[in-house]
Every structure is written in structure tokens, then in C-alpha cells.
Description:
Layout: E1 9-14, H1 36-54, E2 59-62, H2 74-89, E3 94-97, H3 111-118, E4 124-127, E5 131-137, E6 140-147, H4 152-155, H5 158-161, H6 166-186, E7 194-199, E8 201-202, E9 220-221, E10 233-237, E11 243-244, E12 253-255, E13 272-278, E14 284-289, E15 295-301, H7 308-317, E16 325-332, H8 342-349, E17 354-361, H9 381-390, H10 396-420
Parallel strand pairs: 1-2, 2-3, 3-4, 6-7, 7-10, 8-9, 10-12, 15-16, 16-17
Antiparallel strand pairs: 1-13, 5-6, 11-12, 13-14
Amino acid sequence: MKNLHPNMIKILHLADIHIGSGFSHGRINSATGLNTRLEDFVNTLSLCIDRALEEPVDMVIFGGDAFPDATPAPYVQEAFASQFRRLVDADIPTVLLVGNHDLHSQGVGGASLNIYRTLGVPGFVVGDTLTTHHIQTRNGKVQVITLPWLTRSALMTRKETAGLSMAEVNQLLTERLEVVLEGEIRKLDPDLPTILLAHLMADNAMLGAERLLAVGKGFTLPLSLLTRPCFNYVALGHVHCHQNLNKSNDPPVIYPGSIERVDFSEEKEDKGYVMVELDQGDTKWEFCPLPVRPFLTIEVDLSKSDDPLSILLGAIAKHNLDETVVRLIYKLRSEQLDLIENSVLHKALNTAHSYTIQPELVSQLAKPRIPELNASSSIDPMEALKTYLHNRDDLKDLATPMLEAAQTLLEEDNHILLNNF
């Protein structure tokens, strides 16, 4: 990091590790018995911890979503713990925030992270409630307000939401959160640097390939709630695309993004973490890219070709597929199916780390085979629709009205459900 000042507090900010995700994009490593995508995530996390130790930083803050869900497999938990244990051994205090993927489906308890508090791991703070933590670092004390992912039940009862539209519920939730946050702000020590560490969807977040992520997913919070003069740095988690939401940089409001590509929607996004120099008067930060495994989509329209296999092989040959996760999508007419030799395609793709082949018939509305929508996934309806539309170029013009219509239907269903309790 450039122009480091020795008296400032150095912090490494990372989020959205999602270790244990994306196994369908990997394969079993015969030497270890582990899925190669798990190894990718562990290696990338290891690079983050390496940097924390090399500086060394004074503190590490994690913005939530350690795992895909609240009950990761023991070997996945062990992989996560073995990396963060290195911070304990180096006496670097660490704040672990609870994100939406760390919560049980009922929204009660950050089970996947609370074990660190239960065991009393030295230097580890688990942020599963909205409260302020005073943390002593080697270069001074820092106060960190933790704002974990909040479910509606955390701020409101079902009775209070009865008869309200989703927009009205969100407005009331925001107002209640503002009151609680204001209570924490009033207790802050004005002489100490302050961090807001939050897992949330800000209303002006640029979502990149996942631009519709917010639809049907919790509620969004206004940027004005975060850009308070009492905060020296606002550390966020939840959105996987790195960005600074506050162009004035006073304070910086930073999503570091995820540290690995979770699926093809993140194919073109840089992945990394953020190094921060914290000071009450002058906070500096720098995004640090990580060398992650590339994802590549090869998309070809063969419907007008007399020799579709040659065109397809030519499109594949243009790319270096070594150690890349590849998605081959090609469109063709039903009468061309016999002209495509699958064995030849498999041979052409065999240098890739892993690959999927997705033929689409243009003569009929064939349903594309989208890896993110496999039968075993636990994706919610709005997320499923969003992913499906993202993979259907022919429906781009209809995507927004379709999502709005679906959201209206879900609001009506939620209305009925809330009134039944």
C-alpha cells in the first residue's frame, strides 16, 4: 500500500468468502480427495491471511458470508478455521460479522460463526448483533459498530407487518434501524477512530453482472444511513462486486467484493480484498486484486452455418482453456443436432479445468441448462428467475417487466402469509 503512515492503524477488510461454494465447477483432486474449487477458495483465503501477517496489519475485519449456509460440512469449517487460526497465533484481533448465508433459514443465530465466541477464541469478536465493540490493537484502540444481516423478525413482529405492503415494511424497517443505530452512535467515544462493519444491500450499489440481486432479497438501506461523519471507514459485505459507494470518500463506503468467483455471473469481476489505513482525520484504502481461477463463457450461434461443428471448434480454439472453468453455449436448429459430435467437443475442451456444454435450440423455446439452477440448489424463486433471465439473451428486453411482475406476485403471497400468522 502506497504512502503508509506509521502511526495509522492498518486493517485488512475482506468479505463474502463463501468457502464450500461452486463445487459443480470443480473436480475431485485425486491426491487430496477434495474438490478443487474448495482448494481454490482455501488458497485464495490463505493469500489474504498471508498479506495480513506480512504487513503485519493491526486488525482484520470480515464483512460476512463465510460459508454457503449456516451448517457447512466439518471439513469446510476446518478449512476456514485453519486459516483464521493463523491470525490468533499472530495476536491480530479479528471481527467476524454474521451475513445472510451464515444465518439459519429461520433467521435465528449465526451458527456457523458463533462457535468462535462459544470457544472463547482469543482476539476473535463475532458480530451477530447491532452493538459497538472496543478493540485494542497494537497501534491503538478502535471502536467497531457491527451491523449483521437483519431479518424482518429482528426488528418487527409479524403482527406489525400485517396489512402493510412490502415497500411499507421496508420503510418501517429502515426507520427502526436508524433509531437503533443512532443509539450506538451517541455512545461512541469521539476521540477514537470508528468503523461501521455491516452486511447489507445499499440502495445505490452497482451490482455488475448481478444487477438484479436485490430483487426479493431482504431490504435495501439508504446510503445516507452509512455516510455519517462519525464513521472513519464503512466496511461492507454482501455484494460480490468491489466498489466504493461514496465518491467523496468521506467516509469511504467499501464493498471489497467476494474473494473468489462463486459462479458465472462473476466471470468478468476482479476479486480481492481491501487494505485500510485508519485515522480519524485521514483514512486511506487500496483494493488488492487476487489471482483467482478464470471463468470463461464461449457463446456461438450456429443456426445459420452449414458446417456447425467446424465453426464451434474454431470458436473454442481461439481461447487458452488451461485451468479455466468453461461454459460452452451454442445455438442451433434441431436438424443440425446430428452434425455435432459430442466426443469431438469433449476432446477440444479437455484442457479446461472443468466445463459444461449447453446446446440451445433456436427453432423452439428450449430451456437452457443453467448450472446455477440444478435440481439440488437451494436458490430462491426470485434468484432463480434472475439467473434464468441472465442466461437468456432473447428475453433481455422482457427481463425487467417479468421480474417486476414476479415481485408483485411474491408480495401478494407474503401478504397472505403474514396475515395468516
